[in-house]
């Protein structure tokens, strides 16, 4: 090969290399930076769930849509609620974020009082487009004052605590995630994935959010999942003795059956008075309140999933009449069945 030809080939390779680098750099510049703040005893799934969603997100040309950094105050690895540690980057070494997410876990309840963590959060919050929390990470945002006068949510078991300790926050326990301006908060654990999909949909559109959801075998929005926990399952978990587990399962599986104190007491081989007292001590509700709560949640899920109609739900779930069901929904959700269906179908 003569010199002119060799030189031309070299120039061609350099141009191609430069073009490839420019395209890669352009894609990297387009990618939004997401910083996830972690700390000791963080919940692993609160980190890995949203992390997976953002890692899978792509532009139309196949390039990564997000640059993700896990940051800790010290830049050192942090412990999780499992046997795994999480490697982290020092905040100064991470790119300037578009979105910052505070992960959750029991460690958040003590980490919120860390002056260094609060300083980091404030520094990030003033530079980013969106501030988010997963699960108990809401307590860290609350301590920073970022949820003052806003609507927010957290894990169902700590909603009351969040409302009591930070009375300026309007805490809702009936949504998977809540958006109030530039602040997003999500409910317990896997709800962080729902929130991440919604963030991707806001950035990249519904088509990409659907693609990721299909890849992860997930719904983009959970139908009937606006309530963060099942009343039946909560009381099965809360039961200290397990003595009513079989009865609670029967109520859950057959909500349309007739459940009276005499009939339930007979099933438990207890006197009516002793049964009513023990049931409330075990579940926190009277037998009638408990049965109604199970029926209301079962009817709500069936209505939102399309498994029941307004005409059939009252009889199908043991209310007896449309008016009885309407009053029960108002007590439980503060809205009629019709209003709930309109709210979540429009959402």
What does this structure look like?
This protein is α/β, with parallel strands linked by helices. 51% of the residues lie in helices and 10% in strands. The protein is built from 16 helices and ten strands. It has helices at residues 3-30, 44-56, 108-111, 115-125, 137-143, 159-165, 191-204, 206-215, 231-238, 245-253, 261-267, 272-283, 287-305, 310-316, 322-333, 337-346, and strands at residues 32-37, 66-71, 78-79, 85-86, 99-102, 130-133, 151-152, 170-171, 177-180, 183-186. The protein has a six-stranded mixed beta sheet, with helices on both faces. Strands 3-4 form a two-stranded antiparallel ribbon. Strands 7-8 form a two-stranded parallel sheet. Strand 9 and strand 10 form a beta hairpin. The longest helix has 28 residues, at 3-30. The chain is elongated and about 65 Å long. The N and C termini lie far apart (67 Å). The model is unreliable at 6-11, 19-27 and 223-230 (pLDDT under 50).
Largest sheet descriptor: 6 strands, mixed
Alpha plus pi helix count: 16
| Overall radius of gyration | 26 Å
The secondary-structure class comes to: alpha/beta
Distance between the termini: 67 Å
**What is the H/E order?**
HEHEEEEHHEHEHEEEHHHHHHHHHH
Shape: elongated
Q: Helical amount among residues, as a percent range?
A: 40-55%
* Residue runs with pLDDT of under 50 for 5 or more positions: 6-11, 19-27, 223-230
Strand content: 5-15%
- Average predicted confidence as pLDDT: 85
Total number of beta strands: 10
- Biggest β-sheet: strands ordered side by side in the sheet: 2-1-5-6-10-9
